[in-house]
Design brief:
The structure holds two protein chains of two kinds. Chain A is α/β, with parallel strands linked by helices. Chain A has a single domain, classed as Aldolase class I (TIM Barrel, Alpha-Beta Barrel). Chain A is built from nine helices and ten strands. In chain A, the strands form three sheets. Chain A has a five-stranded parallel sheet. Chain A has a three-stranded parallel sheet with strand order 3-10-9. In chain A, strands 1-2 form a two-stranded antiparallel sheet. In chain A, helix 3 links the parallel strand 5 and strand 6. The longest helix of chain A has 21 residues. Chain A is globular and about 85 Å long. Chain B is mostly beta strands. Chain B has one domain: Beta-grasp domain (Ubiquitin-like (UB roll)). Chain B contains one helix and seven strands; from the N terminus they run E-E-E-H-E-E-E-E. In chain B, strand 4 and strand 5 form a beta hairpin. Classes of the chains: A alpha/beta, B mainly beta. At the A-B interface, strand 4, strand 5 and helix 3 of A face strand 7 of B. Strand 4 of chain A pairs antiparallel with strand 7 of chain B.
């Protein structure tokens, strides 16, 4: 079967020399249980799956790692530095993640404010420079600020990840203009990360022409995460396809779709 | 021997980091070890001996966005 996306010959998404099958990336946090997480990831069609680095629970070491439920041969594990508030901490977490031995990609987060979880862009740039030097493929979670995005690209980041809205807020794409501007000006892939709430948000985000989208809570906190994952998969494809199709211009006045000639007297 | 593992004071038998993981019933392939703020690669775990007061971090991947 030929899908619409194949018909219009979309290019595959390549980040840091690695080509991915899906433009939707998903997180693994906050699921009600591991079985739901596994089924939701499968329903999403995502290849890139994010994970966090945390201390092993010494008292209950048997229940352990998320890797017991995910097959690193089938999915691409993208470790994040979530929870880090300084460049030094983020660098430390990134190094620990790489030592796990899966790849040299890191989703770099340096958080600057507890209430909004908005990025500390100074710390982010500092950490990005160090990690790029150390050979990491850095995907930098940032706000929707063009100049910061340009600086991150200059620093050698493999992708820049502007937010749609604050992490876990579900408010959707608050600033489409800025995200479009970032996409227009950058050469590295732009992946919108965080803030999506439902399928229409994912679709509108992809319609801006960005290369991909990453989400966690929108799926994990849905009443039926597996169904929402499927909706997000379709919305991501729909938005991407609509972008490639090229939308009609907006007008302030109506224009009839049916002929005005041939009307009865 | 008293050490600090993942921020908690622990009494352990001592020996190498590899022996420590065995004592804690942890699979060396499933954790990353930081010894006094320095990452110890898996192949080197048997070469590092734990000393009194050492700070050891044992981490792994958990669910996250």
């Amino acid at each position: 079967m030929t899908t619409a996306v194949e018909t219009i010959r979309d290019e595959p998404l390549t980040i840091g020399g690695h080509t991915f099958t899906s433009r939707l990336m998903v997180g693994t946090g906050k699921y009600p249980d591991m079985d739901t997480m596994v089924r939701a990831i499968e329903a999403s069609g995502a290849e890139v799956v994010t994970v966090a680095v945390r201390r092993v629970n010494l008292d209950r070491s048997k229940e352990s790692s998320v890797l017991h439920f995910l097959d690193p041969k089938k999915i691409f594990l993208l470790a994040n530095t979530a929870g880090c508030y300084t460049a030094a901490d983020a660098i430390r977490y990134a190094r620990l993640a790489r030592e796990a031995g899966f790849n040299d990609f890191v989703k770099l987060e340096v958080i600057g404010d507890e209430e909004t979880l908005l990025p500390d862009v100074a710390g982010l740039l500092e950490a990005a420079k160090v990690l790029v030097q150390e050979g990491f493929k850095v995907l930098a979670y940032t706000n929707e600020d063009l100049v910061t995005a340009l600086r991150l690209e200059d620093a050698g980041c493999a992708a820049v990840m502007p937010l749609a809205s604050p992490i876990g807020s579900g408010l959707g794409l608050l600033n489409p203009f800025s995200v479009r501007t970032i996409k227009r000006r950058l050469h590295v892939p732009v992946i919108v990360d965080a803030g999506v709430g439902t399928a229409s948000d994912a679709c509108v985000t992809m319609e801006q022409g960005v290369d991909g989208i990453l989400m966690n809570t929108a799926i994990a906190a849905a009443q039926d995460p597996v169904a929402m994952a499927q909706a997000m998969r379709m919305a991501t494809i729909a938005g991407r396809t609509a972008f490639l199709a090229g939308r009609m211009p907006k007008r302030e006045v109506a224009m009839p779709s049916s002929p005005t000639k041939g009307m009865l007297d | 021997m008293d050490v600090v593992i993942n921020g908690e004071h622990k009494k352990i038998k001592g020996g190498t980091l590899l022996e420590l993981l065995a004592e804690l019933e942890l699979d060396p392939r499933a954790v990353v070890v930081e010894h006094n703020r320095k990452i110890v690669r898996r192949v080197g775990l048997a070469d590092v001996t734990v000393a009194e007061g050492d700070a050891i971090e044992l981490v792994h991947f958990v669910g996250g966005g």
